[in-house]
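Before any further analysis, we paired sequence with structure tokens, yielding the entry below:
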Amino acid sequence: MAAYLVVDTDISDADAYERYKALARPVVEAYGGEYLARGGALDVFECDLWTPSRLVIIRFPDAAAARAWADSPEYAAVRPIRHGAARATLAVVEGI
């Protein structure tokens, strides 16, 4: 069953975040991830619980693949760039 990584990001250093994006993409793809949305136009029309700022959605073959990516040594080398450039919330949801 496919799983979707949903990321909400508040970027504080755009240049560093661009470097993160360039390095993260091949790691995501190596673990079977496919970007479905990456910071495109956002129309929030109900926000009782959460007000997203910049969304990224990545489809993985399953939740185990998403977790393998998140826990991988390859991503561990890239993650600190994101931590220095943005605040983020990441969640994986199983889908259809």
Notes: The chain is about 40% helix and 30% strand. The CA atoms of residues 70 and 76 lie 8 Å apart.
